[in-house]
Amino acid sequence: MKRAIALARMGLGLASPNPSVGCVIVRRGKIVGQGWHEYSRMDHAEVRALQAAGLKSRGATAYVTLEPCSHQGRTPPCTDKLIQAGIRRVVVGRIDPNPRVSGKGIAILRAAGLLVDSGLMHKECSALIEPFARHITSGNPLVVSKVGMSLDGRIGTHQGDSRWITSPKGREFGQTLRLQADAILVGIGTILADDPELTYRGKQKKARPLLRVVLDSKLRAPVNARIFSAPGEGPVLVFCAAKASQARRKRLEKRGAEVVMAPQNVNGLDLKFILNELGKRNVLSVLVEGGSEVHWSFLEAGLVDKFYSIIAPLVIGGRRAVVSVGGKGYRTISEALRFKIGKQYFAGPDLILESYPVYSRSILSPWLLPETLPCVAPGSAHSSGRK
Q1: Which alpha helices (DSSP H) does 181-316 contain, by range?
Q2: Is 46 a catalytic residue?
Q3: Is the distance from CB of 99 to CB of 92 less than 8 angstroms?
Q4: pTM for this entry
Q5: Smallest Cα–Cα separation from 378: which of 88, 59, 102, 53?
Q6: Which of 33, 176, 215, 271 makes a 20 to 30 Å CA pair with 297?
Q7: Which one of 38, 46, 67, 130 is the catalytic residue?
Q8: How far, in whole angstroms, is CA 189 from its chain's centroid?
Q9: In this predicted structure, what is the pLDDT of residue 162?
C-alpha cells in the first residue's frame, strides 16, 4: 500500500478533476503490475496496473488507495476489470467518499467472490483525495489558504515591501500547493500592490492550468496587469459587483479575462456564490493567497478548510506593517477562531504549520469525529465520482 500511495502522488497535478489513485498488483510476494491515474490518459490506476501485469493478474492481490469504481463513466467500471482479470483479493485504502457510491464497488467485488479488506493506511490514502472528497460531497472546492509571514505575523512592511519574506525553499513549497490546486484566488489589493502573474512555476508537470481568480468588485484591475499578459498560463476569472463599470468590464474581456457579476452582502462580494461558481467549473480545490483582507473575509465567513502558515525567522515590526489577516478582527479572545495543527515541518529555514479551523469540512480535519466524516460506511449501496 505504501507503494500504491507513492504512485498516487505521481498523479497529483495530473488527475484532476478525478482523484489521485495508485494501484499495485502482487502475486506470490512480488509486484507484477502497478499504475496511477492521469486524467488525460483516461485509464484508471487499476486498469493500468492490470495491463502491466497481464496474465499474472490471475490469483493475485490488488492494493488500491481508493475503492474501485463500479459505474460506467468515460471508461468501464474498474470492478469489472478486476473480476475479469482473475484478481483473488483486493485491499482498499479508503472507501469512496461519494455518498451516492460509497461501498458499492466493494459490495460488487465481494458478490463476485473476491476477498476485500479496507482501511489499510486510511489516513494516508485520505490525504490523496482531500480536494476530491470536499467537492464530491458538497459541490464546492476545498478552500486552502496560504500566508507567507514573519515571526510577528506580518506580510509586508509599513511601506508595502513584501519581497521576499520567505526563503526560496518556502516559496518552493508554495509552488507545490499551486501544483495541487485547480484555482488560485487573490483580491484586487494584491493585484494593485504586487502585480503578480499567479502562475505555476514548479518542476513537476501540471495538467490543468491554474484558473486565476481575482475578487475585484469595482473592476479596478489595470488592463496592463501582468495577470492578463500571460494568457497561455491559465484562464483569468474576475468577479465583480453588479454596479461595476461596463466599460471597464469590456476592456478586461478584450484582454482575455472572463468577468462574472457576483451578488454582494454586508462584507462585500458573496464568497459562497463564488465558491459555488468554481465548483460548477470542476474546481476541486482553490488556493487563497490573499491579501490580508481576503484572508479575513474567508475566515470570518467560515469557508476555509485548511490554512498554511509559512513562517520566516525574521521580525518586521511596526504598527502600520501589513498583518497576515486583516479585517475588523474578533472583539474578544473567547470569540477568536480556533485551529488545530495537523502537521508542522520546515522548508529551509521557514516553519510550515498546516492547520484546520474548527469549522473545516476536510476529511482530514482533526476536529471531525468519525461519525461526522463526509463519507459512508463500507457496504452501503450507493456510483463513483470518478469519470
Answers
A1: 188-194, 246-254, 271-280, 292-300
A2: yes
A3: no
A4: 0.91
A5: 102
A6: 176
A7: 46
A8: 24
A9: 73
